[in-house]
Amino acid sequence: MSLSQINNFLRKNPQIRTVRVAAADLNGQARGKRVPTRFADKVIEDGTRFPLSALNLDIWGEDIDDSPLVFETGDADGVLKPTERGFVPMPWLEAPTALLPIWMFHESGRPYDGDPRHALRAVLQRYKAHGLTPVCAVELEFFLIDDSGKNLQIPISPRSGKRRKAAEVLSIRALDQFDTFFTDLYDACEAMDIPADTAISEAGLGQFEINLMHQDDALRAADDAWLFKMLVKGMARRHGFAASFMAKPYEDYAGNGLHVHFSIINEQGENIFDDGGPKGTDYLRHAVGGLLQAMPDCALIFAPHLNSYERLEPENHAPIGVCWGYENRTAAIRIPSGNPGARRIEHRVAGGDVNPYLILAAILGAALNGIEDRADPGEPIRGNAYAQEMKQIPTTWADAVRVFEQSKEVPRIFADELVRNMLLTKKQEMKYMAELSPAEQLEIYLDTV
User: Fold this and answer.
1) Where among 69, 88, 112 does a domain terminate?
2) Is residue 118 part of a domain?
3) Is the pLDDT of residue 164 over 80?
4) How many structural domains are present in the chain?
């Protein structure tokens, strides 16, 4: 969307009373400002300003104590400009409101390396240099939760007035129990131009999954996932309950995942993973090799929070073994069957609590490294991956931080400044989370991630 088109949005929608401008920080939290509509033109044309450190806050929204972005450099400002997405409505708010996604630049106009959206953009520029374009789709799982009492539970159904305390995999009845919520959610996705596709009930208590359609613009796919998470949480509150993408809100049920499907097309529009058969090309195998090579090192991206590691347990629908397989959901990397023209890779490790920009950057960056290196993925596994001996990704927060810090793969994907900021953020969060009770930890993660 051009600046003139962004400007025209407000003129064509005079009912909009307030505007939000926001960027994603490293935890995927929206950081920004509320702007009166009559002053929005200035933000659109000139951008807005806030400290570079605002994209490097901890999960509580606090400064990082030892960050060089704060006192050491005078807490200098960055310039935040509208992304090409332009305005989107915020249907979960009472007053007609529009959100303008923004991203951060230095005063000189150079992209700020600590901005997660720029991290993904840098990976996509590498693809472009090869004449390649990723085609991505995201599957997001979330729980609907009544958090009004001491213990979390599924909300009372607006249709039946009952609280059904059972997981109902692929149950139409479970979807229909919250039909009003899902109808409003899909209407809101239409208004926000988020390509929400199929909804299903999942294995957890009050757990659902919605797929976002594949597209050949990975930045937009990440935007969609970021906006969708914001929308689901906001719309649930409007309906009187909570929605959470927290990795593991319930001890006894499977956690929330965020699965990424992707293929790669060349300049002729051909899927480079398609060999006309079920196995796929050498490009596919090299991409898988790169993903497996980087998987342990990127665990902090796939599982960025303390609660994330409660999901990473054997036989809990969260692959922890570094492996791949054809049509095998116990494998970390699954190659789905079906039409060879749609041959793709599914990455199944990440939790629902991730930053969408960082997860796509990590996955697409590792895959391209594998293609460039002609990486060998080894043999695909057969059978239950949980029952086989193999290399594992880190299953504790501390180990993930250590491996991320020592990695040789991570700097091939992410800028040094983003790596530094991520480590400072997670080390601070580890320090303060250790002082909280499980109930306090749950409270901070439930609504934020």
Assistant:
1) 112
2) no
3) no
4) 2
Q: What is the pLDDT of residues 280-314, one digit of tens each?
A: 999 999 999 999 999 999 999 999 999 999 999 87
Residues 50 and 157 in one domain: no
For residues 119 and 358, the answer to whether their CB atoms sit within 8 Å is yes
Which residues, including other chains, have CB under 8 Å from residue 161's CB and lie 6 or more apart?
A: none
Is residue 366 within 8 Å of residue 298, measured between CB atoms? yes
Residues 6+ apart with CB under 8 A from 307: 246, 247, 248, 353, 441, 442, 445, 449
- Using one digit for the tens of pLDDT, what is the confidence trace for 382-428? 999 999 999 999 999 999 999 999 999 999 999 999 999 999 999 99
Burial annotation 404-427 (CB, 10 A radius, 16+ → b, else e): bbebebbebbbbebbbbbbbbbbb
Q: Is 255 found in the same domain as 216? A: yes
> Are residues 351 and 375 both part of a single domain?
yes
Do 249 and 286 lie in one domain? The reply is yes
- The answer to whether residues 24 and 116 touch, using CB atoms and an 8 Å cutoff, is yes
Question: Higher confidence at residue 113 or residue 6?
Answer: 113
**Domain shared by 138 and 100, yes or no:** no
Residue 19 phi, psi dihedral angles, 5° rounding: -125, 140
Q: Residue 145 and residue 28: Cα distance in Å, rounded?
A: 21
Residue 148, amino acid: S
Q: Residue 192 belongs to what domain range?
A: 123-448
Q: What is the mean pLDDT of residues 333-339?
A: 96
Collapsing DSSP to helix, strand or coil, 73 comes out as: helix
**Residue that is written with structure tokens 């003129």 in the block:** 11
- In three-state secondary structure terms, 77 is strand
* Domain edge (last residue) among 112, 132, 150: 112
Residue 390, domain CATH: 3.30.590.10
